[in-house]
Design brief:
Elements (H helix, E strand, L loop, with lengths): L12 H31 L7 H5 L1 H18 L10 H17 L6 H29 L5 H28 L13 H24 L5 H8 L4 H11 L4 H20 L5 H23 L6 H10 L3 H32 L8 H27 L1 H8 L1 H21 L6 H24 L7 H30 L6 H17 L4 H5 L3
Helix pairs in contact: 1-5, 1-6, 1-7, 1-13, 1-14, 3-5, 3-18, 4-5, 4-7, 5-18, 6-7, 6-14, 6-17, 9-11, 9-12, 10-11, 11-12, 11-18, 13-14, 13-18, 13-19, 14-17, 15-16, 16-17, 16-19
Length: 505
């Protein structure tokens, strides 16, 4: 597969800081989005039942953007600007524009379109940052590199989540007329946009990427891998694509016959679209056009290493829980802990601010756990078992929402969720970065992140129908779903072969 010819220079703490500091800004953007978009939508007139449909833009853009950006960034070299940094900078600029514009939304459509723009832009920046750590660090520093990145993710999320709470205590108006966004949220988005761009610009200015020639000297990649991938794709049957199209048709028929939420049609369309894309990619490979982006992405997706497939299953269920949390925490806390389901009420807006505090707690815990707890657990238990333990702590945290009624007590829940969050952000990527071919690190990280996006899309399209059927007007039960999915992820992480894992430590 590859023969190493040299080792990359070791990075000190200053180097590790510069490599990942941009993620601090990106996570400010994600934190503002995750903690406040349900609040924005409901302030503009959305009902709880409509929230998943409005959120569908976020995972859909990630699903489309991340593999494309990964594929392109592997093949980019813009001289002094480098390989990954052009994508950091472009995504940060577009995300800043979306954050500055979001508070000016005059309706749900405008807010949903800006969410689409914001999430796409954040994904353009985020995916290359994952590969950037692998690019810049030797294997024995991958765990440290992703731990530092996770710490910045946690710190950025703390800052972004606390903005409305702090502004409220500084006397900024925390309520607004029906159909308007409170000033606490408005100013938070504006300040967050500026902070995001400044942080990413720091990484762009303070780092120098290794050239393609330097990467070749470090890794000695053999070109035969592409030929093998192309041959494997060309040898696949077109019937696989037909099955995907049939699955999409079955889902669409179910929506029609059982009057499910119309958003589920999107899931049907995606299944059918992947079937068509895979058939086209196979035809391109058979015609000798495997260098095309579509054939490359589909071929790499079909040929994922076994360890990556196992970790992808874990990620799928882990991120299902997280997306449930981001969509539903504000209405859950408002209804069950502050006694109001009316977005125009002062109690609801106070709950929205408290959710920002809670999100800052789990992100702050994640920042500390990434540097202090995960290395210890990994050395004692191995990465797979440590990850399973952390995910179990998160499941207990979600379960706590069901039994605790004091808003202050929810901080205990967030500690468990924060430990899980730290592990989700660090462990899978540390394992993968050392096992993937360097020149395909971008595309494989992008494809791996598809399994971050797919569960979010599934939650956005299906969860509304599930809740209407089983627990109408009782959003608290979404937290039980979140706990259950994390337990499934914990069990799946134990299936990662210890022998496979140890070879990567």
């Amino acid at each position: 597969m590859k023969v190493g010819h040299g080792r990359k220079p070791r990075q000190g703490w200053a180097g590790l800081w510069n490599i990942s500091f941009g993620f601090f800004g990106i996570q400010i953007g994600f934190a503002l989005q995750n903690a406040n978009m349900s609040r924005v939508f409901q302030s503009l007139g959305s009902s709880i039942d409509d929230l998943p449909a409005l959120w569908v833009a976020a995972p859909l853009t990630g699903l489309l953007v991340q593999p494309i950006v990964g594929h392109l960034s592997d093949r980019t070299w813009l001289g002094r600007l480098g390989r990954r940094r052009p994508y950091f900078l472009t995504g940060a600029l577009l995300a800043t524009i979306a954050l500055l514009w979001m508070p000016e939304s005059n309706g749900l459509l405008m807010a949903a379109l800006l969410l689409w723009m914001l999430d796409a832009s954040l994904n353009i920046s985020m995916e290359p940052f994952r590969a950037f750590v692998g690019d810049m660090l030797d294997r024995d520093q991958h765990t440290a590199g992703y731990a530092v990145q996770t710490a910045f993710i946690g710190a950025g999320a703390v800052v972004g989540s606390l903005f409305p709470y702090v502004l409220d205590h500084l006397g900024v108006a925390n309520t607004a007329a029906a159909g308007s966004i409170p000033d606490t949220v408005r100013y938070s988005f504006w300040v967050g946009g500026i902070a995001l761009f400044a942080a990413v610009l720091w990484t762009v200015v303070t780092t120098r990427e290794y050239s393609p020639e330097e990467h070749a000297a470090f890794h000695g990649e053999e070109p035969a891998e592409d030929a093998a991938s192309s041959a494997a794709l060309a040898g696949r049957s077109l019937l696989g694509g037909v099955r995907w199209i049939a699955a999409g048709a079955i889902v669409a028929a179910a929506v029609w016959n059982w009057a499910l939420e119309k958003e589920v049609y999107l899931l049907a369309a995606l299944l059918a679209a992947y079937g068509l894309a895979s058939m086209l990619a196979i035809r391109l490979a058979r015609a000798g056009r495997s260098a095309s982006m579509l054939a490359g992405i589909v071929g790499d997706f079909a040929g994922m290493p076994p360890l990556m497939k196992r970790l992808a299953f874990v990620q799928f269920f882990s991120w299902s829980a997280l997306f449930i949390m981001w969509i539903n925490t504000t209405p859950v806390v408002a209804q069950y802990h502050f006694g109001s389901a009316d977005p125009a009420s002062a109690a609801y807006q106070e709950a929205g601010n408290w959710v920002g505090v809670l999100f800052s707690v789990y992100n702050g815990v994640a920042a500390i756990a990434a540097l202090a707890l995960l290395p210890v657990l990994s050395s004692w238990l191995g990465k797979a078992r440590a990850h399973a333990l952390c995910l179990t702590a998160g499941a207990l945290g979600f379960s706590g929402f069901l039994v605790l009624r004091d808003p202050d007590a929810l901080v205990i829940c967030e500690i468990g969720i924060g430990i899980a969050w730290a592990s989700i952000l660090a462990m899978p990527y540390a394992i993968l970065a050392s096992s993937l071919p360097q020149r395909k690190l971008g595309i494989y990280m992008g494809l791996f992140n598809v399994f971050v996006v797919l569960p979010q899309l599934l939650v956005a399209t299906v969860m509304g129908s599930i809740m209407k059927a089983l627990f109408p007007d009782e959003p608290i039960w979404t937290m039980v779903f979140a706990a259950a999915t994390l337990l499934v992820a914990a069990a799946a992480s134990l299936r990662i072969g210890e022998g496979e894992q140890q070879s990567l430590l």
